[in-house]
Amino acid sequence: MPNFARYQGVSFYAFVWLIPLIPYVAASLKRKSNSLDRHLGNFTYPFYLVHFSVIQFVSTAVALTMGTKVASMVLAIAVAALFYFLVDRPSEKLRYSLIAKKRQKVRNEEAAARSALP
């Protein structure tokens, strides 16, 4: 008889604690986030991109101990912060400025087309 409490090595009961969080998550989706929330949320993607590479680099360079694991996480956070401030934010600003220019161009063309009508 199969064990329904376990599916592919994951305990079904490990997810039971998520059920009380559903109302909280639903309510928090309606709240407007503040600047800190947005920056932390935006920071997670650069961290996701660099953390594995940094950890692999540190683990091949030195022997893994608890101290080097902590140091590799600190280094991953630092590299992700550099990536966020030097690449991600400037590229977002460029993207928004290009979008604004494109919208202004479309508005100007629409206005010219309207003024050309009899």
- Helix and strand string, N-terminal first? EEHHH
Spatial arrangement of strands, main beta sheet: 1-2
Helix count? Answer: 3
Name the structural class: mainly alpha
Number of domains: 1
- What does the largest sheet look like? 2 strands, antiparallel
- First-last Cα distance: 81 Å
Shape: flat
Which percent band covers the strand fraction?
under 5%
Helicity level, as a percent range? over 70%
Low-confidence stretches: none
Features:
118 residues, mainly alpha, two-stranded antiparallel sheet, 2 strands, 3% strand, flat
Mind sketching the topology for me?
Elements: E1 6-7, E2 10-11, H1 21-28, H2 35-61, H3 66-116
Antiparallel strand pairs: 1-2
Helix pairs in contact: 2-3
Question: Can you walk through the features of this model?
Answer:
It is flat, with a radius of gyration of 24 Å. A two-stranded antiparallel ribbon has the order 1-2. It has 118 residues and is mainly alpha-helical. The model has no long low-confidence stretch (mean pLDDT 84). Helix 2 (35-61) crosses helix 3 (66-116). The protein has one domain (6-116). The chain contains three helices and two strands, in the order ββααα.
